[in-house]
């Protein structure tokens, strides 16, 4: 009896041991043990490294994974994708909702100083920041033909990445899983979500616990996005009634694809009127090289109530400019090659565009070693947005993807900073309405700290449209507290 009892105890202990190994099997080599520029205690575990999505080509996607600061064993896991195409998701990590706020170095050649971000999305979820496709950020391929890519291939590679990533981190497989992104990720997110849905339907292993997706100021449909700018600038009081009425008459409501000289003339006049604005947030100053100081001075003289509307609570200037977020005005994404900002200009002097803090930090040798990037002989430097890839928009309108996904029960949050002129809320509002779902939560304000911070409308099949008052193209950058609020509520399935 004693022998049998001992055997049972040994089997029980073996079972417990194996359970611990299986449920805590994140690769030790991927652990980030120190973060250059940050001197405090890291509030949760960080991991970074590569997943090979094509062995024969040596195509490797880089990720940076931050565990939730709350309950990582239970909280949702979210994949975050920045847009471009061609922009690194470290954009979101550094400037938007990552665990740190980055303060520019006080001396030339120094590292930025990192402070804990009280509004990090990792307060309530674990986040995988993915550089995608290969050629973007720290992701690379040993076969340069892979740098000719597009929507469909990118979605397929990202799906392979997810399947392999969850094999590396199986302890998170049962957590609710969401996909999120902004700008050109308005294409990345639904196309990847569709691949994930197909994989689940086909019983592909490992089976992801996919619950829904989030898109912020995302491009969606050529016609609807293309026609969104003119109504937006008129509604914001940036052009006069007369010009709007003339453009409407001459263009017959078709603003993105001029069919007459008279229409082109009116659109050119509109472009001239708004040329000096920051297209990513019309409330923010736009920097044009040496003119920056003069613009800042003028901006500071504005009434405080106006300045605070688009102001971030972060302890430093968000950044002088924002590189590669989208395309020139009235150039919505159409079928075919989508140029990146570096491919559109021979100079980096794009108005309202810069990512100096990220450049300095991520190109530092100590940082690269700490976060497990490839050697410089493989990836020579990190760029916020790359000109290395040739990208083909080959998936068409995203509306059919959204219909398919939401009709199958996946939850969708479509949010817009309402002062973004790059991908105006007028387009997102129009396409969500165009799907034709029944309105189940009529247009109303939503609140944070007892204040109206935006408006929302809810549709059947768990589709929600949301605006954030005073925010620009990258909502968490301008309105971090409000962004965390709607993010937290959406993930939890609570009303916003």
TrEMBL record:
One of its GO terms (molecular function) is acyltransferase activity, transferring groups other than amino-acyl groups. Keywords: Carboxypeptidase, Disulfide bond, Glycoprotein, Hydrolase, Protease, Secreted, Signal, Zymogen. It comes from the Eukaryota. It is found in: Secreted. Its EC number is 3.4.16.-. GO terms for cellular component: extracellular region. Gene3D superfamilies: 3.40.50.12670, alpha/beta hydrolase (3.40.50.1820). Residues 1-25 form the signal peptide. InterPro entries: AB_hydrolase_fold, Peptidase_S10, Ser_caboxypep_his_AS, Ser_caboxypep_ser_AS. The keyword Disulfide bond applies. This is Carboxypeptidase. The lineage of its organism: Eukaryota, Viridiplantae, Streptophyta, Embryophyta, Tracheophyta.
């Amino acid at each position: 009896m004693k022998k049998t009892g001992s055997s049972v105890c040994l089997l029980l202990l073996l079972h417990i041991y194996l359970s611990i190994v299986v449920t805590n099997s994140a690769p030790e080599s991927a652990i980030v043990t120190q973060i250059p520029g940050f001197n405090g205690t890291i509030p949760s575990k960080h991991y970074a490294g590569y997943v090979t999505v094509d062995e024969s080509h040596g195509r490797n996607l880089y990720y940076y994974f931050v565990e939730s600061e709350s309950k990582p064993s239970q909280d949702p896991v979210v994949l975050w994708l920045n847009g471009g195409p061609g922009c690194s998701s470290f954009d979101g990590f550094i400037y938007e909702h990552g665990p740190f706020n980055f303060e520019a170095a006080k001396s030339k050649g120094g590292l930025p100083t990192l402070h804990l971000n009280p509004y990090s999305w990792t307060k309530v979820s674990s986040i995988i920041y993915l550089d995608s496709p290969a050629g973007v950020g720290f992701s690379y391929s040993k076969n340069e033909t892979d740098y000719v890519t597009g929507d469909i291939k990118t979605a397929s590679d990202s799906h392979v990445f997810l399947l392999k990533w969850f094999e590396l981190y199986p302890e998170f497989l049962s957590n609710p899983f969401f996909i999120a992104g902004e700008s050109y990720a308005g294409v990345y997110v639904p196309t990847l979500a569709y691949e994930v849905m197909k994989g689940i339907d086909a019983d592909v292993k490992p089976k992801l616990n996919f619950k829904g997706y989030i898109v912020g100021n995302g491009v969606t449909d050529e016609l609807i996005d293309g026609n969104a700018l003119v109504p937006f600038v008129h509604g914001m009081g940036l052009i006069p009634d007369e010009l709007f009425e003339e453009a409407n008459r001459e263009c017959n409501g078709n603003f993105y694809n001029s069919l007459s000289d008279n229409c082109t003339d009116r659109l050119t006049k509109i472009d001239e009127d708004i040329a000096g604005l920051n297209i990513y947030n019309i409330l923010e100053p736009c920097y044009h090289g040496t003119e920056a100081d003069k613009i800042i001075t003028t901006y500071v003289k504005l009434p405080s109530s106006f300045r605070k509307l688009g102001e971030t609570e972060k302890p430093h200037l968000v950044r002088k400019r924002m590189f590669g977020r989208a395309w020139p005005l009235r150039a919505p994404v159409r079928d075919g090659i989508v140029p990146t900002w570096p491919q559109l200009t021979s100079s980096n002097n794009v108005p309202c565009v810069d990512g100096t803090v990220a450049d300095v930090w991520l190109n530092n040798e100590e940082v690269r070693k700490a976060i497990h990037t490839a050697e410089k002989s493989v990836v020579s430097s990190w760029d916020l947005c790359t000109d290395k890839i040739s990208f083909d928009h080959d998936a068409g309108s995203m509306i059919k993807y959204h219909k398919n996904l939401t009709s199958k029960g996946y939850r969708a949050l479509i949010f817009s900073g309402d002062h973004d002129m790059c991908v105006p809320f007028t387009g997102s509002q129009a396409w969500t309405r165009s799907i034709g779902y029944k309105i189940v939560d009529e247009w109303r304000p939503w609140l944070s700290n007892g204040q109206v911070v935006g408006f929302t409308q809810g549709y059947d099949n768990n589709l929600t449209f949301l605006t954030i008052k005073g925010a620009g193209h990258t909502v968490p950058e301008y309105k971090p507290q409000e962004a965390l609020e709607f993010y937290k509520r959406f993930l939890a399935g609570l009303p916003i």
